[in-house]
Design goal:
17 strands; six-stranded antiparallel beta sheet; about 1000 residues; six-stranded mixed beta sheet; single chain; flat
Length: about 1000
C-alpha cells in the first residue's frame, strides 16, 4: 500500500485546506514531519487514519474533537486520502459529524457524517461506494488490514510505540488478538468448556436418575411388603435397603418383583370368583324389581280407567258445543261484515259533525242547507241528494278561494323580504359614503408624498457613504488589535528571554563541570589499568598480558575507577548535554518569537496601541450601524416611490367605485318602492298579507273537510244497507233464530281445536288404559306390595365384595407393573451411565488442557499457545534488526515462564544482554535502549502482520515517536535502520522536532501555527 496525496480542511488544528503530496518524497525515500510542539504534526497521521477508518486512536476514549475549533458554523470539515494498492488507485473523502447553520428557520442543525470511495479508472475518478457500511466493506477488501493492524504496521502512532515491548502478558495478548484475529481459539475453548459442563451435568443427571428410580422401586416394595425373607423382624424394609452397590440393590428388587407378580395372579383369581357371585345377585334383584314395577303399573291403570269413566258426561257436552260452533262458522263472514259496516257508519257520522262545526266557525254563509247526519235516514233518497248538492257547492267555493290566494302568496313572499331590502338600502348608502371618504383621503396623501421622498433620499445617501467604509475600517481594527497584542507579547517574551538565557548559562556551566569530571575519571581509569590487572593475578597462573606464571612485583591499585563509574559519569554528561541543548533551543525559539512580536508591534507603545484600537473600533461600529440602517432606508424609499405610482391608479379606482355605489343605491330605492306598493294592495283589511292568506287557507281547509265528510257519510250508509240485507238472507237459510244465537255459538279456531283434541284424547287414553290393564291382569300378580329390601341387601353385599377384590387385584397388578418399569429403567440407565462416564473423562481432560488447567504446567490456553508461536516469529524478525542496532549486545527472547501468583503465562518478552550473559526484563532498559528495542520489535511485528495479511506490500511507513531521547550515536543507528527501510521504493515519514534530524533529513514537511491560530503545512 502507498499513500499518494492527503487533503485536510477544518480538521484538528487545520482550518484552511492543506494538501500533502507524498509522491513528492518518493525519490528521497525518507522525509521528516517537523514543527513546534502542539503545531499539529501528529494530526497529519490522525487525518490519514480518520480518512481510511473513520476514527482517531487518541480520541477513542474521550470527546471526538475531530472538527477544528477554529471552524465557523458554515465552514467545511473534510479529509481526502488518495492511495494505491495492488487492486488499483483509490480516493476516500470523509467528513465527521458537526453542527452547521440550518437552511430554514435559523439556528444550527446536525450535519451527519459522510464518506465516499472513488476509484481511478480510465483517467477519471469513478464512484464506487457512498454509504458508510459499503465504504467500510470495500476498504476492508482493498486494504486487507484492520485498523489495529494498520496502526501497528504502517502508522506507528505516538504513545503506542513501546507499549508492545513493555506490556505484560495480558496486555500483549489483547493486542496480538486484535492483530491476528485469534478470537476463534478463545471460542474453541469456550465451546469445550460448555461441552465439559454439559457432559458433567448429563452424567450427574443420569446417575441421579438411576438412584432416584432404584429408591422409588424400594419404596414401592416396602409399601407392598414384598421383601419376604430379607425383611428385618418387626420392619417392612430389609436391613440393607438404600445402601450397597447398585447391582446388589437391583437384584434384591428383581426378587421382590417375582413376589409381586405371584400376588397379582392370586388377586385376579379372587376377583373372578367375586364377579360370578355378583352376577347372580344382580339377576335376582332385576327380576324382583320387574315384578314390583308391574304391580305398580296395574294399580295405576285401574285408577286411570275409573277417572276416565267419570269424565264421560263432560265429553258429551263438548261434542254438542263443537257441532254448533261448526254450523255457526258458515255465518261468521256475513255477521262480521254487518257489524263492521255499522261501526264505519258511526265513525262517518262523528266526522261529518266535526267538519260541520269547523265550517260554521268560519262564518261563511252559502246558499244551500246541510242535512243532520244523526237525523237522516240512510234509505231516503232525498237526504242523499241534499248531501250531494252541498258537496258540489263546497268544492266550487274552495276552488274559487284557491285561485284568489295565489296572488296573495307572491305578495307574502315580498313582504318577508322588506327588512332585508331596507338593510340593503342602508348598506348601499354606507358604500357611497365610504367611497367618497377614500377618494378624499387619496387626494390628501398625493399632496404630502413628494416631501417624504426627498427626505428618504437624503438619509439613504448619508448611510451609503458610511457603509462603504465597513471593510476598510474592519481591517484597521484588526491591524490595531494585532499591534496591541504584539506589544503585550513583546513585554512577556522579553522577560521570558532573560529567564531562558539564565537557564542556558546554568546548563552550560553544568555541562562544563560534567565534562571535566568525566575526563578526570577516564584519566584515572587509564592510570589504574595496571593495578586493576594486578588484582586479577593468581600465583602459578599465566598473566593475561605477558603470559608469565611468576608475578614478582604486581602494580598497586591505589586509585580504582570502575567501568560503572565511567558509565555513571557519561550518563551525567549526556544529561547535561541534553539540558544545554534544550535550553539553547528555548533561547532560540524565544528570540524568534520576540523578533516576530516586535515586527508586528511596529514600534507602538501600550497606550498608543490601546488608543488606536478604541478609535478604530468606534469608527467601525458607526459604519456597521449605518450599513445595517441602509437597507431599511432603501426599502422605505422604494416603497415611497412605488406609492407615488400607485396613488394615480387608486384615484381612478376610487372614482369608479363611487360611481358604481351611487348607481347601486338608485336601483335599491326603486325596488323598495315597488315592493311596498304590491304588499299594501294584497293586505286588504288585515295587518299583514300572511294573516289574510292564513285566514283564507283555514276557510278552504274547512270547506274541503266538510265536503269529504258528507261524501263519506253517504257511502257508508249505502254499504250498511247492503250488508244488513245479506245478513237477513243468511239467517233465514240456517238453524239459528237470529244473529245473537249465532254469536253465542261461534267459537274461535283455537277453541274448536281444543274441544276436538279433548274428545279425541279421552277416547284414545281410555282404550290404552283398558289394553294395559288386560295384559297385567293376565300375569296374576299378588295384591299385596312386593318387598325389595332382602334382595337389594344381597346384591349390595355381593357388589361390595367384588369391588374389594377388584381394588386388591388392581393394586397388585399396578405394583408389579410399576416395579417392573422402575427396575427395567434403572438397569438401562445404569448401563448407559458407564459409557457416559468414560466420555465425560475424555472431554474434561481435553477442556482442561485447552483452558490451561490440570496437567497444563505452563497454564497456557489454546489461544495463548497460538499467539506464543506468532510472538516467537515476531521476536525472530525483530532480532534481525536489533542485533545490528545494538552492535550485537541485545537480543529479544520469547519467555513462557510461569507468571507470578498463578497468572496466565506464555507471552513474556525478556532481553538477553550479551555483555552479562543474562536475560533481564525489558523494563530495565534505558530510554534509548528501549526506543531501539521498541523500534526493532515494531518493525518485526509489521513484517509478521503483513505476511499474515496475505503478503501485501507496504510502500509507506510513518513513525511518530520520541527520537529526542537518543544520544548522537544511538540516533545514527536508528537513522541507518530507517534508511534501510527505503529499499524497494518504500517511503518513510518521521515525526520529530529534534534539530539534528532536521539537519540529516533534507526532505521535510513543516507544520507551523499562523498568527491567527490555525496551523498550516509547507514543504
Amino acid at each position: 500500500m502507498r499513500l499518494h496525496r492527503l487533503e485536510i480542511e477544518g480538521f484538528g488544528p487545520f482550518l484552511d485546506r492543506q494538501i500533502v503530496d507524498f509522491d513528492g518524497f518518493a525519490d528521497d525515500g525518507i522525509f521528516l514531519i517537523a514543527g513546534r510542539t502542539g503545531a499539529g504534526k501528529s494530526s497529519i497521521l490522525d487525518a490519514v487514519c480518520f480518512g481510511l477508518y473513520g476514527g482517531v486512536p487518541r480520541y477513542e476514549s474521550g470527546d471526538k474533537r475531530l472538527r477544528s475549533d477554529y471552524c465557523a458554523p458554515e465552514d467545511l470539515s473534510e479529509v481526502v486520502v488518495e492511495f494505491s494498492t495492488t487492486a488499483g488507485r483509490f480516493r476516500v473523502t470523509r467528513s465527521p459529524e458537526y453542527q452547521r447553520p440550518a437552511k430554514r428557520g435559523g439556528g444550527l442543525t446536525k450535519q451527519a457524517s459522510a464518506v465516499a470511495l472513488d476509484e481511478w479508472i480510465d483517467d477519471a475518478w469513478v464512484g464506487r461506494a457512498a454509504r458508510a457500511v459499503d465504504v467500510g466493506n470495500e476498504l476492508d477488501e482493498i486494504l486487507q488490514l484492520s485498523r489495529e493492524q494498520f496502526l501497528q504496521v504502517i502508522l506507528l502512532a505516538q504513545n503506542r510505540f513501546a507499549r508492545f515491548l513493555l506490556a505484560d502478558s495480558k496486555e500483549r495478548q489483547a493486542l496480538l488478538r486484535r492483530l491476528f484475529g485469534t478470537e476463534r481459539f478463545d471460542d474453541v475453548q469456550s465451546r469445550f468448556d460448555e461441552r465439559r459442563r454439559a457432559a458433567e451435568n448429563a452424567l450427574a443427571g443420569r446417575l441421579a436418575t438411576v438412584s432416584a428410580r432404584v429408591e422409588e422401586a424400594e419404596r414401592v416394595v416396602t409399601a407392598a411388603a414384598l421383601w419376604g425373607d430379607l425383611a428385618v423382624e418387626g420392619e417392612l424394609a430389609p436391613a440393607g435397603s438404600g445402601s450397597g452397590s447398585t447391582e446388589a440393590r437391583l437384584e434384591a428388587l428383581r426378587l421382590a418383583l417375582t413376589r409381586a407378580e405371584y400376588q397379582a395372579e392370586r388377586r385376579v383369581a379372587e376377583q373372578d370368583d367375586a364377579e360370578k357371585r355378583l352376577t347372580k345377585a344382580d339377576a335376582a334383584l332385576v327380576a324382583a324389581r320387574e315384578e314390583k314395577k308391574a304391580q305398580q303399573e296395574r294399580d295405576r291403570a285401574r285408577a286411570a280407567l275409573e277417572a276416565l269413566d267419570a269424565e264421560e258426561p263432560q265429553i258429551v257436552d263438548a261434542r254438542h258445543a263443537l257441532e254448533r260452533a261448526r254450523a255457526a262458522e258458515a255465518l261468521r263472514a256475513t255477521i262480521t261484515a254487518t257489524t263492521r259496516a255499522e261501526e264505519t257508519l258511526a265513525g262517518a257520522v262523528v266526522a261529518a259533525q266535526a267538519a260541520r262545526s269547523s265550517w260554521s266557525a268560519t262564518g261563511v254563509d252559502l246558499a244551500f242547507g246541510l242535512v243532520d247526519p244523526d237525523a237522516a235516514d240512510p234509505d231516503e233518497t232525498g237526504a242523499s241528494a241534499a248531501e250531494s248538492g252541498a258537496v258540489a257547492a263546497l268544492e266550487t267555493w274552495a276552488s274559487d278561494r284557491i285561485r284568489e290566494s295565489g296572488a296573495w302568496a307572491r305578495a307574502a313572499e315580498q313582504e318577508v323580504t322588506i327588512p332585508a331590502l331596507m338593510a340593503e338600502l342602508a348598506a348601499a348608502e354606507r358604500q357611497v359614503t365610504a367611497a367618497s371618504e377614500r377618494f378624499e383621503t387619496g387626494e390628501a396623501e398625493r399632496l404630502t408624498l413628494p416631501s417624504r421622498v426627498a427626505e428618504l433620499t437624503t438619509q439613504r445617501d448619508d448611510a451609503r457613504r458610511l457603509a462603504d467604509r465597513v471593510d476598510d475600517l474592519a481591517l484597521a481594527v484588526e491591524s490595531a488589535r494585532i499591534r496591541r497584542d504584539a506589544v503585550a507579547e513583546q513585554e512577556r517574551l522579553s522577560d521570558e528571554l532573560a529567564a531562558a538565557e539564565r537557564r542556558l548559562a546554568d546548563a552550560s556551566t553544568a555541562l562544563a563541570a560534567a565534562q571535566n569530571d568525566l575526563a578526570e575519571l577516564r584519566r584515572r581509569r587509564l592510570d589504574g589499568f595496571a593495578g586493576e590487572l594486578a588484582t586479577a593475578l593468581v600465583e602459578g597462573e599465566p598473566c593475561a598480558v605477558c603470559g608469565s606464571t611468576s608475578h614478582p612485583a604486581p602494580a598497586a591499585h591505589t586509585d580504582p575507577v570502575s567501568a560503572d563509574d565511567i558509565e555513571s559519569a557519561e550518563a551525567v554528561r549526556d544529561a547535561a548535554t541534553q539540558a544545554e541543548r534544550v535550553a539553547g533551543e528555548q533561547v532560540s525559539a524565544v528570540r524568534a518569537e520576540l523578533a516576530a512580536a516586535q515586527a508586528r508591534a511596529e514600534e507602538r507603545t501600550a497606550e498608543t496601541a490601546d488608543a488606536e484600537v478604541k478609535a478604530a473600533a468606534a469608527a467601525h461600529a458607526d459604519a456597521i450601524t449605518a450599513a445595517e440602517a441602509l437597507a431599511s432606508v432603501e426599502v422605505r424609499l422604494a416603497e415611497a416611490n412605488e406609492r407615488v405610482s400607485a396613488l394615480d391608479e387608486e384615484r381612478a379606482e376610487a372614482s369608479r367605485t363611487l360611481a358604481a355605489a351611487r348607481e347601486a343605491l338608485a336601483l335599491v330605492e326603486q325596488r323598495s318602492r315597488e315592493v311596498q306598493a304590491l304588499v299594501a294592495d294584497a293586505r286588504g283589511p288585515f295587518d299583514t298579507v300572511a294573516e289574510r292568506l292564513a285566514a283564507t287557507t283555514a276557510q278552504i281547509t274547512a270547506a274541503q273537510r266538510l265536503a269529504e265528510a258528507l261524501a263519506e257519510h253517504a257511502r257508508r250508509a249505502a254499504a250498511l244497507s247492503e250488508a244488513a240485507a245479506g245478513q237477513q238472507s243468511a239467517l233465514a237459510a240456517s238453524d239459528f233464530d237470529d244473529a245473537t244465537a249465532v254469536q253465542q255459538a261461534l267459537r274461535s279456531s283455537a277453541e274448536q281445536a281444543a274441544l276436538e283434541s279433548r274428545i279425541t284424547a279421552h277416547s284414545v287414553q281410555r282404550a290404552k288404559e283398558k289394553a294395559t290393564l288386560l295384559e297385567l291382569e293376565l300375569r296374576t300378580l299378588p295384591e299385596d306390595p312386593i318387598d325389595l329390601t332382602p334382595v337389594e341387601q344381597s346384591a349390595a353385599d355381593a357388589r361390595s365384595e367384588w369391588k374389594t377384590t377388584v381394588d386388591a387385584a388392581n393394586r397388585a397388578q399396578s405394583t408389579a407393573e410399576q416395579l417392573a418399569r422402575l427396575i427395567e429403567s434403572a438397569a438401562a440407565e445404569h448401563g448407559r451411565s458407564a459409557e457416559q462416564q468414560a466420555e465425560y473423562e475424555v472431554i474434561r481432560s481435553l477442556a482442561d488442557t485447552i483452558a490451561g488447567r490440570a496437567g497444563n504446567t505452563h497454564k497456557m490456553t489454546l489461544e495463548t499457545f497460538v499467539l506464543a508461536a506468532e510472538l516467537e516469529e515476531i521476536v525472530q524478525a525483530a532480532n534481525r534488526r536489533l542485533s545490528d542496532m545494538s552492535t550485537g549486545r541485545y537480543q529479544l527472547q520469547h519467555s513462557d515462564a510461569l507468571a507470578a501468583r498463578g497468572a496466565a503465562s506464555g507471552l513474556g518478552i525478556v532481553v538477553f544482554d550479551a555483555f552479562t550473559g543474562q536475560a533481564r526484563p525489558a523494563q530495565s532498559l534505558s530510554g534509548g535502549e528501549t526506543f531501539l528495542s521498541s523500534l526493532a520489535l515494531a518493525l518485526g511485528l509489521a513484517e509478521v502482520v503483513t505476511a499474515r495479511a496475505g503478503g501485501i506490500q507496504l510502500d509507506t511507513l510513518f513513525i511518530d515517536e520520541g527520537f529526542g531521547s537518543l544520544d548522537a550515536d544511538t540516533l545514527d543507528i536508528a537513522m541507518r535502520t530507517l534508511d534501510e527501510l527505503r529499499s524497494g521504493g518504500r517511503t518513510v515519514g518521521i515525526i520529530s522536532h529534534v534539530e539534528s534530524m532536521q539537519e540529516q533529513i533534507p526532505a521535510q514537511l513543516v507544520v507551523e501555527q499562523t498568527e491567527s491560530g490555525p496551523s498550516r503545512i509547507r514543504t
